[in-house]
Design goal:
Helix content is 45%, strand content 19%. It contains 14 helices and 16 strands. It comes from Melghirimyces profundicolus.
């Protein structure tokens, strides 16, 4: 007969065992994360940083070494006795597949744990723009990379996908992305997992640009950062205390849909005068078209309806006055849209990335100038405003980091 006491004891043992497992996992992830961030470390250094006993750390490091993820890499400086052995991350113990899915193309890369690209392929987006065709293209891309590299499936930790948002990152569903009208509610994670037979994680593009810069780019030293993706549209990703801030349960970072002109044009989102409709790449194109139609001559542009972002960036490189004025004003509007973000979040760092900010390098300085002038002074003093370092790779690197998050940081959910 089971008494209440037996039940209580059983439940107690289950809880203690569960907590021990959790503690063990936490310690393992902390060892890996410390070595990833700081480079090779000795057992004594790890024990000191983690406030654990040498014997405790030694066991964790030995386990990780026998699983192949850590390896012995030389000796450190002696503090009197024997030189301590240093342990480093074996970046090729496992691999991840990173997918950067945009309206125009699908980029698939196979990366090691330090995000060195082993092989990559870039496919044009399918003509019919249907979710089914995108899934098939990703499947083909992944298959090609696995075959070419000869890396066995068991060494692949998973697949990270950067997708146009909004994305429910809990379920991996893409929800009505404005630039892909045939996509309604697409269970992208589920469909790709069926096709690839590997674990898949899906996140909106701007979040992964932020995560990529935080882990491997300009944001490495910053705990709190805001990444602003300025391309055809304007997106944002927020990192708070080292982790991506997704909102409840998702949807945070829509910096592009804050109002900067109450009476401005209607935006895709239904609001009027959003930052995106006033200062994105498409907004610049719209204004240049209007000026040319109104009689402003410029030798750098084709017929107004044919103007693309690439024409704008080329005209800027050729020193076209109209373009320079438009891009300067656009940068000031972007800065205006970021004042509220800085005042409310007070990040350590603001990172500007995306095609338009890369093509117009003065944008960072203009944004800096406006922010310094307009943000509450005590808040802007320590704020760094920088360009993204990963350039057009930040989506892929972020998608890889999304998969690696699992092993390097414990996701308590
Ligand atoms: Zn909007």
């Amino acid at each position: 007969m089971i008494t209440y006491l037996t039940l209580f004891k059983k439940e107690g043992v289950r809880l203690i065992k569960g907590n021990q497992r959790l503690l063990k996992k936490m310690n393992r992830t902390q060892v890996l994360d410390l070595i990833r961030r700081e480079g090779p470390l000795s057992k004594a250094q790890l024990a000191e940083r983690m406030k654990l006993t040498f014997a405790g750390v030694s066991k964790i490091v030995n386990d990780l070494e026998s699983s192949g993820i850590l390896f012995l890499r030389g000796e450190g400086r002696s503090s009197g006795g024997r030189k301590p052995a240093l342990y480093a991350l074996n970046a090729t113990a496992f691999y991840v597949v990173a997918v950067d899915l945009s309206v125009d193309e699908i980029h698939v890369a196979l990366m090691d744990l330090s995000t060195v690209t082993v092989d990559e392929t870039c496919l044009a987006a399918p003509g019919d723009r249907t979710p089914r065709s995108y899934v098939e293209a990703v499947r083909l891309g992944v298959q090609t990379l696995l075959e070419r590299s000869g890396i066995p499936r068991k060494k692949i930790l998973g697949v990270g996908v950067s997708s146009p948002g909004p994305v429910n990152s809990v379920t991996g569903e893409v929800l009505y992305p404005p630039n892909l009208p045939l996509w309604n509610v697409v269970p992208l994670k589920e469909r790709l997992e069926q096709e690839l037979r590997m674990p898949v994680k899906v996140e909106k593009d701007a979040n992964l640009h932020a995560l990529g810069e935080k882990w491997f780019g300009a944001g490495r030293g910053a705990d709190n950062l805001v990444y602003v993706l300025v391309g055809e549209g304007i997106g944002g990703g927020i990192v708070i205390e080292g982790s991506l801030y997704r909102g409840t349960p998702f949807g945070a970072g829509e910096i592009g849909h804050g109002t900067v002109d109450l009476h401005g044009p209607r935006c895709n989102c239904g609001n009027y005068g959003c930052l995106e409709v006033m200062a994105s790449g498409l907004a610049v194109i719209r204004r240049i078209r209007e000026k040319i139609r109104a009689g402003h001559a410029s030798p750098h542009y084709p017929a107004p309806e044919k103007i693309q972002l690439s024409n704008v960036l080329k005209a800027f490189q050729c020193g076209d006055d109209l373009t320079i004025r438009e891009l300067e004003e656009t940068s000031r509007v972007i800065a205006a849209g970021l004042i509220g973000v800085v005042n409310s979040l007070r990040p350590d760092m603001l990172i500007l990335g995306g095609k338009l900010s890369r093509g117009f390098p003065l944008m960072t300085d203009i944004v800096k100038g406006v922010i310094r002038e307009r943000v509450v002074p005590a808040l802007s003093e320590q704020l760094q405003i920088v360009k993204g370092e990963l350039r057009d790779k930040s989506g892929l690197v972020g998608a890889a980091a999304l998969v690696m998050e699992e092993i390097f940081t414990l996701q308590l959910k």
